[in-house]
Write the structure tokens for this entry.
Amino acid sequence: MSDLRVRFAPSPTGYLHIGGARTALFNYLLAQKEKGTFILRIEDTDVARSTQESVDAILQAMDWLGLSYDEGPFYQSERFDLYKQKVDELLEKGLAYRCYCTSEELEAKREAAMKSGGKPKYDGTCRNRSDQPDLPFVVRFKAPQEGETSFVDRIKGAITFENDELDDLIIQRTDGTPTYNFVVVIDDAEMGLTLVVRGDDHINNTPRQILMYKALGYDVPEFAHVPMILGADKTRLSKRHGATSVMVYREMGYLPEAMVNYLVRLGWSHGDEEIFSMDDLIEKFSLSSVGKAAGVFNPEKLLWLNAHYIKTGDPERLGELLKEYLQMIEVSTENGPPLPAVVKTLQERARTMVEMAEGAAFYYRPEVEFDPAAVQKCLTKDKEPILTRLTELLDAATGWDHEAIAAAFSTLMGETGLKLGKIGPAVRVALVGGTNSPSIYEVIEVLGKEESLKRLRGSFSKFV
Ligand code: GLU
């Protein structure tokens, strides 16, 4: 075990987004590589927007990607006593104060400040107030107004903010609930985080948080802010650019290893290598090779990686997955050829598991679903004697492998003087129903003798 402690801290207000998944992955990889600790913390202080459904969706997506954590999940909603205690501590020390300004007053102040060219930050009306009227209040952090706050970001380098730019942040709302910037500091400190890796949309929060670490007497961890992910048009990745939910990619037939491989390359590189297993990544990943520029989401590359992992995947495992994808299109695999054998016939062609399921369905459907156009084109009367003869030859075959099937076809071609290109399409439509399938010998072999003969015979009534 090393001292490294990192975390992923999603807010459960929706599904796990591509960007969040990448942050989780980077943290996971760092912890794995350095034998540190990876903590999962659910940031559900915004009770109105947080749902159990989102928590479940996030946990499920992490599980799918193989991102296991060592500690947690911790829920901020279960830690309100601690936060309350810290608010009181800051109030007592004079490092926070009650602010009674109403939202109308704040809005008026903001407008006035903007008009006079000033910064729209809180003007400090209640900073030095000593009375405690019986009115609703928020608690604000008393941020230092002079000096500067600096930190060295592990990705972006040295960053400095002038303290007079930073607002007196609200740390407790009128309803008594604490706010993000405050609780994140308490939790990161209390959970002993040594490094905070998160999206750079939080970079403006970091100096504010550093001031609170100091006020609360905590050690400040290191920070690494990962650049955003953009769509092809260089605007922030959103639904306009395609699915942004990790689990939607699963539904679309993506493999988790393709997703992991894709996510890591959105911002990190290792020479010009493209293919990385999780084990490779654990060995090779480092923050020093995370780029400063935003990554651009490229669905074609993700598809290319997925096709690669399907092509090279273990047929047994892909067979198990195929079963689930077939179930989604209501095709039962109870009867029919063994799944791994079916996978082998489709691995080269299917780019997603959905495509594989669509391509595999004909093996399992109890009746061939004929495409009328294919029947019209290929099952013409002149082919009937040819398919009849093929049926006899296959029926007489001893053994049922590629060679035996090829031998039957070769006899047929010899007898009729026709090339495979003339015979194949009719056979394919008879067996599959359409004109698109794996190689015809493979289909016959995998369907098996009984089923192949049954389908060939069944097609005789279809000739036009
Ligand atoms: N809960 C925050 C979010 O989902 C992350 C906070 C952090 O990483 O500091 O954006």
User: Anything to note?
Assistant: DSSP finds 19 helices and twelve strands in the chain. Residues 9-11, 43, 184, 198, 202 surround glutamic acid (CB under 6 Å). The longest strand covers residues 37-42.
